[in-house]
Amino acid sequence: MKEDDFYLNLVDWSSQDLLAVGLANSVYIWNARTSQVTRVAELAPGDAVSSISWNQRGNVLGIGSSQGTVQTWQISEGQSKKLREFKEHNARVGVLSWNEDVLSSGSRDRNIYHRDVRSKEGSHTKLKGHSQEVCGLKWSYDSQFLASGGNDNKLLVWDIRSTTPIIRYSDHSAAVKAITWSPHQRGLLASGGGTADRCIKFRNVLNKSTLRSFDTGSQVCNLAWSKNSNELVSTHGYSQNQVVVWDYPNMTPLATLTGHTMRVLYLAVSPNGETIVTGAGDETLRFWHVFPKKVQSAVNKNSIFDTILLR
User: What is the b/e burial string over 25-54, where b = at least 16 CB atoms within 10 angstroms of the residue's CB?
Assistant: First the structure.
């Protein structure tokens, strides 16, 4: 990885075991089964990939660009085909999140758009709630709630049926990029704040409460909850540049992983839920086996097993 921009999201791992990575104006796919790397999408000259996200089926990749476009590409057996291009935004699209056939995007223009990619008319729904760039976006596992974080230090929660937020959290003191929903408890949401905040906060959106706040000591860049156990992983920037696996709800650190020499800005989880990949501006992707299998309870705590150099 070469990009050291807190607001981009350039790595995602599909349910079909394909790892997508955005570099400059291209997207590359690493096949975890064959280890083959293929370039599958290319934006126009002068444009750049600013976000990528796989749909749940793992056959369509959403791509957001620095010029404000959102594209969808069908990926199958090493073949790729551009399906649609959407131009609702007028600034870079730094974050994407899928809800079945609805692709949601957040932008520096402060807006969020939902679009049903099956619709030939290109209809969309606009959500406006942030006063600065939208840098975090995540649909809940039950498809009912969307959480959005902004450079305005706000965390908003939207109901699928509403175009105005149902909850506004204003207790972070820096940008909210890191967002993850618990796959184990409906309505349990975690968010992480940037350099001036450093905290992971846990919410119950069903009763609109904040459960606790935990100071991690450094910028929180990403969060991901394990689907196999009640643990989560956070990646960090200023000043630790580390990856930490936490036991929830105690927030006891189970593992602290170091190796990146710059902010760990990118994070994705493998389809089996056991491995994560992290990316940083130090031009590496690092793979870590951090979560147990579904039937196990132990965590491999010192587990970097591969590094891919992307130059």
Answer: bebbbbebeeeeeeebbebeeebbbbbbbb
Cβ atoms < 10 Å from Cβ of 187: 18
Q: How far apart are the first and last CA of the chain?
A: 7
61 strand-pairing partners: 54, 73
| pTM exceeding the 0.90 threshold for the entire prediction | yes
In angstroms, rounded to a whole number, what is the distance separating the alpha carbons of residues 192 and 265? 13
Q: Which tokens in the block code for residue 237? A: 């920037």
Biggest CA–CA distance in the chain, Å, is 51
Phi, psi of 50 (to 5 degrees): -115, -15
- Say how many C-beta atoms besides its own lie within 10 A of residue 23's C-beta: 16
CB atoms within 10 A of CB 120: 7
Q: According to CATH, what is the number of the domain 1-128?
A: 2.130.10.10
Which token pair is 143? Answer: 């498809």
Reported as a single tens digit per residue, the pLDDT across 174-228 is: 999 999 999 999 999 999 999 999 999 999 999 999 999 999 999 999 999 999 9
Which among 227, 224, 235, 277 has a CA at the least distance from the CA of 12?
277
